Amino acid sequence: MSTPFILLLAAFVGLSLARVPLALSMMVAGFVYLITSHQDLGIATDQIMNSLYNNYVLLAVPMFILAANVMNAGTISKRLWGAADAAVGHLHGGLGHVTVLVSVAFSSMSGSALADAAGPGLVALKMMREVGGFRPGFAAALTAAAATIAPIIPPSIPLVLYALNSDASVGALFLGGVVPGLIMALSLMATVSIVARRTGLGRRPWVGWAAFGKAMAGAAIPMTIPVVLLGGIWSGAFTPTEAAAIAGIYALLISVFVYRAYDWPTLWAVLVESMRASSVVMLLIAGAFLINYAVTAEQLDKALAGWIIGARLTSTEFLLAINILFLILGCLIDTGTLILILVPLLLPTIKLLGIDLVHFGVLITINIMIGLITPPFGLLLFTLAKLGDVRINEVVREIWPFIAALLVSLAITTFIPQTVLWLPALAGFR
Fold first, then answer.
1. Which DSSP letter does residue 416 get?
2. CB 103 within 8 A of CB 116
3. What are the pLDDT digits (tens) for 120-139?
4. What's the rounded Cα separation, in Å, for the pair 116 and 144?
5. pTM of the predicted model, to two decimals?
6. Burial of 89 (C-beta count, 10 Å sphere; 0-12/13-18/19+)
7. DSSP 334-362
């Protein structure tokens, strides 16, 4: 590792600790590397502009952000909640099951854990506390854990970013996340059942077929969104990137013309927020391109691959080590930063060990999502504590059973690759 690269790391860590935005921290660190290694600063423009404009898959990111914001600002989240409540609200810990089921439904439309937490998560918090009588910390912890499903079940912004760096098929990654996402949901629901029986959370009576039918009818149109998206990708009618645009437009049309949930000021606010959030992500990606250039120039990726081969790690041992690494870093570092910087560093090793790129992509995304709810720095913990006006120590105390459940899901996905690879193979991606 050269002196310029050490200075790059020092600049990035120092600026990050000073709470400089991550995108700016990466860009400044990249410039520090170019200057101290006596390279032309024009390389920065070349790396950023050519990489951004030559990656068609990046168009999916702002479209998924738009779709999530549209659904959160409209009535779609409430309609999904009503349908899930009618379906499983009568079970032990019913509203906890509803929270998980709503996250599964919303995850098939948004692709963002934070969007899930801020949209249906807010509805879940209120209902669990006011109607179900759940402890505030438990309600916030469960909502945070359920939100981790959103980037696993397609569509998924982290998987799009992974595809950008790995050249793995976005369609295969999307389909590969379906089964692991459902395993995560079942593990969380099992945990809710166990906790509900132990703590005496009551059951509500079945709402009846009339109320059930009404609730399902209310959510029927929103639930066509994942059908259209996955059906179109599966059939080859459109690419995953085109599916992102369809998701954004479809959600907008439903909210504006079917449910009439917007006036012009609200619609304009949603569009502005979507543009702002998209700009933040794109700046983060631009900064990552500079860091990746430095990693490639230093040949750190090849050095890591050589070390792994020299240590004679098997593919399983390597994946276990990666799980530990990403679980730790996931609660400290932004999701996009982890994927955009570490994945290029690991790719040569992945290929040498014969690890499937789709399996690896879904695996590290699950790791990062678990990191988001891992104390002491998990971002989703602080987000839900703030949204629910709950003390963070209460949320931390209640989160451990859900972390354990998700770790079981991670182990299943690690040791049984077919949980990821079966559906892409069935759709002809393998």
1. -
2. yes
3. 777 778 778 877 778 889 98
4. 9
5. 0.80
6. buried
7. -HHHHHHHHHHHHHHHHHHTT--HHHHHH
